[in-house]
Amino acid sequence: MLIKKASDIRSSEITPKSVYLRRREFIQASAAALVGAGMAACADNVAAQGGGLAKLPNVKKSPLSTTEAPSLYEHITSYNNFYEFAPGAGDGPKQNSKGFKSRPWKVKIDGEVAKPGEYEIDDLIKQNALEERIYRFRCVEAWSFVIPWVGIPFADIINKVQPTSKAQFVEFTTAVDTGKFPMQRTDLLEWPYVEGLRLDEAKHPLTLLAVGLYGEVLPAQNGAPLRMVIPWKYGFKGAKSLARIRFVEKQPLNTWQKMARNEYGFYANVNPMVDHPRWTQARERRLPSFVANRATQMFNGYADQVQSLYAGMDLRKNF
Amino acid sequence: MKLTVAKILVFAAACLPAAALAYKFYRFYHGDFNALTANPGDYITDQTGTWTLAFITIALSVTPLRRLTGWNQAIKFRRMLGLFAFFYVTLHLLTWIVFVHDFEVRFMIEDVYKRPFITVGMAAFLILLSLALTSNRFAIRKMGRKWQRLHRLVYVAGILGVIHFWWLVKADITLPRRWAVAVGLLLGFRLWWRFRSKRPVLAGT
After folding, report:
1. 3-state helix/strand/coil string of B89-126
2. A87 touches chain B (CB under 8 A)
3. Each residue of B167-198: pLDDT tens digit?
4. What fold does the segment set A49-310 form as a domain?
5. Cα nearest neighbour of A282 on chain B
6. CB contact under 8 A, B114 and A275
């Protein structure tokens, strides 16, 4: 005899109305759980993160580090904007930089300084104290990471080269080598990539000349062997694979400003109140989160340390 | 009978991109973080947008294909292909609602109002929505000649879709340019065909 069921849906499967009404929170919680599940799956590797590259010796911890949990090495090194290797973030830069050799490598530090010089990267590392700086990293494309950089406080470099009274700005130039950087054979951007800082920004204790990541030397896609990190500014301000650091009198014209003056300025300070013309900067995705639900902080959360640099400036005009 | 089988096969093939995304999501959920890249929200938005353009393009190919090959059965697939474009654009819109704006209506309104690439994208969505809603036999019968005029808006949707993509890239226009060429050729074919068929036949020369 056929026994009819009352319903195909068991009452336990019906979403309680209270949950249904709070569906937004529910979805957010699910997303969080999702990320949590992934994190747990990766927990085995967390203790031993890195890419098997050369370890950097004598790295001091820094009180300037955030206490936020660092993003996974795997993510930091597989989602990069590095146009010399590939257009757009994604794993293009990682794939296209596989044969990249970051040694030997020379960087020239010159311009309006008393002691110009050219340094072999490993000498520069040996001659300076290395610190680990765990910084928030906010891309202009509204995604963010927390990154444990290893680097030399840039103020230490400035003290050594002794800028003259003429030096008002610092210009950073990425190396040009079509053998190493395949996209430099195209006209995707104007090469070389150029960035710049005001001298007082460059001197700021947070400004870092990064040479490492997770205690190891930098992988190619993150700007090997040395790059700038300015944590209160959008990521593109941190020029990668530097060939030259030049102290200059006039404000350098940075590459993205040259490409699209209405979209990218010289300062590029993280600012939730000033939108990019094509997207909001009020919120960000802390990768690998799906959702841009994290409120972006003024100066990327470093306002207390850096806002005095911009006292009296109209940050809407000087974006 | 053969047509039914062919339709089922086309349907299954058109589901593959969505199935691939679902499978990658499943892998992500089980700890394979690279399945959807480190920026999964962006990746899914990108993929669903690309497949929307793909299905608009495929649906736009039906008429040129018929004209060039005389294979008139192709028309039997057109509605399904168009509806798949609508399916992918709906997913694409959902990623914008959920991943980009976290359900905040005021942010969405601001986005449509302030950002031209979103404005044209939304216009294209509304076109595809109206075409999907009138894709049933009842609407076709009821609307008569107006139906065809309305459904010509798919040309506009294709153009807006390409503009939407073009305006959102930062520097590398390779991909939007490819779609522009594809849509341009398919629309250009129609113009050419119309021009050709209107030309008087010069008999006896």
Report:
1. HHHHHHHHHHHHCCCCHHHHHHHHHHCHHHHHHHHHHH
2. yes
3. 998 888 999 999 999 999 999 999 999 988 77
4. Sulfite Oxidase; Chain A, domain 2 (3.90.420)
5. B107
6. yes
SS3 of residue A148 by DSSP? strand
pLDDT grade, residue A90 (50/70/90)? Answer: confident
Q: Which residues of A touch B42 (CB under 8 A)?
A: 143, 285
User: In the 8-state DSSP scheme, what is residue A205?
Assistant: T
- CB contact, 8 Å: A200 with chain B? no
ipTM of predicted assembly, 2 dp: 0.85
DSSP-assigned states of every residue in B139-164: HHHHHTHHHHHHHTHHHHHHHHHHHH
For the sheet containing A169-174, what is the strand order?
A: A117-120, A106-111, A242-248, A169-174, A194-198
B15 Cα to chain A: minimum distance (Å): 23
> How would you classify the pairing of strands A143-153 and A194-198?
unpaired
Instruction: Report the amino acid identity of residue A61.
Output: K
The answer to whether the CB atoms of B117 and A278 lie below 8 A apart is yes
Residue B54 has phi, psi (to 5 degrees) of -60, -45
Interchain CB contact of A40 with B (< 8 Å): yes
